[in-house]
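Onboarding guide, step 5: your first structure request.
Type a short instruction followed by the sequence, for example:

Predict the 3D structure of this protein.
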Amino acid sequence: MKNASCSTTLIFYSAALTFFPLSDAAAHGDYHDKVRGLTAQLSVRGNDASVRFELAKEHEGHDEFDLALAEADAVDLLEPGKHPTNWLRAKILNKQNRWTEAEALLNSQLESMPGHPDSLFQRGSARLKLGNKDAAIADFQAAVAKSNQVASPDFYATTARVLLESGLFGEAVEIVRTGLSAHSSEMDLIILAVDTGAAAKEYDFALQNASRLESLWPVPGIWTVRRAELLAAAGRTDEASSTWRGLLKQLENLPNLERGKPVHRDLIQKCRKALDLPVTTDVVAPPATH
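The system replies with structure tokens like these:
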């Protein structure tokens, strides 16, 4: 049941994000622009280790692993021990599913740079894959604690997703709570609050954030459906039925062509099914042409 619940939340989360698609082409262009900019800096500043380390991170982020490793080696020659190059190497190893090697490198990195948040996160990821869940959770929590003053929303979201995908629902909720305390309006974290709260059966937390999303989301009704489902899961059946009826009335009162849009038709069918009403097959006529 735990895995099924996790799959459901992740599917809903993935579907929701389709309203804000990411552009691979844009990311690809951004990578090349950054590499050109850093290379230009090297031509001005000489063989600067800090610039080379930024270059290594850009290559790693674009899965250009050979280029990233070559830059990391150059950084170590220029300024040994000053930059977390073993964290970068371990991140690559984690991407290659070489978790034991990654953990060993991260142990070394954390000996030389205790409390380095990104290293703690990567070691937690490796340990989770190796089946050492307690140590992984400790690393994730330490990573967030060490990053609390500077952590980006993505840091919290990525950590929460790893925990959610691993069935560690309560731990994922706590990471999201912490993230929202620092980034209260971050859409990614609000969505994860709904999914982690539902998975952990912390329905008040999930419902609170589903209500926030109802007012923020560009397509009306998407998160009202989610809220109704959460109310039903929480055993609040009367409130769930009232929510379904209210949404159905709102949708059926839309203008004919608006109501006929696929997203609205799908929402109407969900409402009718939840209320045990006959599922309609209304066909909306196209606008008349003259």
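Each response can be followed by summary notes, for example: Residues 217-290 form one domain.
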